[in-house]
Design a protein that fits this description.
This protein has 372 residues and is α+β, with helices and mostly antiparallel strands. The protein has 4 domains: 36-51 and 294-364, conserved putative lor/sdh protein from methanococcus maripaludis s2 fold (Beta Barrel), CATH 2.40.420.20; 68-92 and 175-201, Beta Barrel (OB fold (Dihydrolipoamide Acetyltransferase, E2P)), CATH 2.40.50; 96-171, Helix Hairpins; 205-293, Efflux pump adaptor protein, beta barrel domain (Elongation Factor Tu (Ef-tu), domain 3), CATH 2.40.30. The protein is 28% helix and 36% strand. The protein contains 5 helices and 22 strands. The protein has helices at residues 3-7, 11-33, 97-132, 138-171, 221-227; strands at residues 36-42, 44-60, 63-66, 72-77, 84-85, 90-94, 173-175, 180-182, 192-193, 202-205, 210-217, 233-237, 246-253, 263-270, 282-299, 304-306, 309-315, 321-325, 327-332, 335-340, 347-351, 362-364. The strands form 5 sheets. The protein has a 6-stranded antiparallel β-barrel. Strands 3-10-8-5 form a 4-stranded antiparallel beta sheet, with no helix packed on it. The protein is elongated.
């Protein structure tokens, strides 16, 4: 091979070099003509709630630790653990025989003393007549009157004893003091129950309706006071649950701010018809003070923040984008409420803003809404 042939590239090499140069030019030219893919949405008029958010706790309106007012042996359990019971429903029955015997004995004593009291009353009446005829001394008359009064007092005491025995017989049947859901049962048939113990036999908790307690910062107190008489609504959602929110009314606003936490206690009441809210449960609370109509809204993802404040990229008719300064009022459930800067019907970019600059042409991804 001659030296001149070594310096000249072969025809194949020249073709490869030319192909690389053409490909490089093509790759440099493509980005200048390509449109950036973005997602868009239209600004629209809608009603949005003026609301405060907080974390709350579900609590029962009523609950009762059911005990026994008399002692006795359990003969019957009339409910199942976790069962819904109504107020006055029988829960537990104790052996009634000792209480029935005590009642019969008290009634017999009352009948005997009533007969004696009636006899003493008749003797006192005869003594009065004899005294008027000067046939009986004053002292004997007074003694008859005293005996009659004593027997009358004995009858009243016996009547009270009968009432007490009858009440104890009623207490042998333990009933639900409030309607609600029963908890864990602490006794079984055959157990001896003692009167007046601090340990409950069962707990009944009212779960329909329930209340939710939550706190708001002291800075929001004037806002609550302003809208309190307009019927604020309380919406509750269980964190992580894919379900609709429970809605109820605001029923309590505390009269004192907690100095330690700087918050004010509020309570809402919820129907809880399906029983899904459980006392002691932590929930997300939204206090809706007012439904504001005709507000311009966009998805919160459309709002970016720059050195001069919030802005959004607006899609123009020629498929270019232009940043538009916004006055952002607030964000409610991933929806941004815009005070000024946008009009209903304008299209804004909701995804892909980081690659954009003023005047860049974009292409709307198919199926994402907005204008192409």
């Amino acid at each position: 091979m001659t030296p001149s042939s070594r310096r000249r590239p072969s025809s194949l090499a020249r073709v490869l070099i030319l192909s690389v140069l053409v490909a490089g030019c093509a790759s440099n030219a493509r980005p200048r003509n390509a449109r950036l893919p973005v997602k868009v949405a239209q600004a629209e008029l809608r009603s949005v709630p003026l609301a405060l958010t907080a974390t709350g706790t579900i609590e029962a309106i009523q609950n009762a630790d059911v005990g026994s007012q008399v002692g006795g042996v359990v003969t019957r359990i009339a409910f199942a653990e976790g069962q819904q019971v109504s107020a006055g429903q029988v829960l537990i029955e104790l052996d009634p025989r000792p209480f029935r015997n005590a009642l019969e004995q008290a009634q017999a004593t009352l009948a005997r003393d009533r007969a004696q009291a009636e006899n003493a009353r008749r003797e006192a009446e005869r003594a009065r007549q004899l005294l008027e005829q000067n046939l009986l001394s004053r002292s004997e008359h007074d003694q008859k009157i005293t005996n009659s009064d004593a027997f009358a007092a004995t009858v009243r005491a016996d009547s009270a004893q009968v009432a007490s025995a009858r009440l104890e017989l009623q207490y042998a049947t333990i009933r639900a003091p409030v309607g609600g859901q029963t908890g864990r049962l602490m006794v079984h048939v055959g157990d001896l129950v003692r009167a007046g113990t601090s340990e409950p036999l069962v707990t009944v908790v009212q779960v329909r309706p329930v209340r939710v307690r939550f706190n708001i910062p002291v800075g929001d107190v004037p806002l609550v006071q302003r809208y309190r008489d307009r019927g604020p609504r309380v919406r509750v959602r269980v964190p992580g649950a894919d379900s609709t929110a429970h809605e109820g009314a605001l029923v309590f606003v505390d009269n004192t701010v907690d100095a330690a936490s700087g918050t004010l206690l509020l309570k809402g009441e919820l129907p809880n018809r399906n029983g899904s809210l459980v006392p002691g449960q932590f929930v997300e609370v939204q206090l809706v003070l007012e439904e504001q109509k005709g507000r311009v809204t966009v998805p919160a993802s459309a709002v970016s923040r720059g050195q001069e404040g919030p802005f959004a990229y607006v899609l123009e008719a020629d498929s270019t984008v232009k940043p538009r300064p916004l006055v952002l009022e607030r964000v409610v459930d991933d929806v941004a409420v815009i005070s000024s800067g946008l009009a209903a019907g304008e299209t804004v970019v909701t995804d892909g803003q980081l690659r954009l600059s003023p005047g860049v042409r974009v292409a709307v991804r198919r199926g994402e809404g907005g204008r192409p």
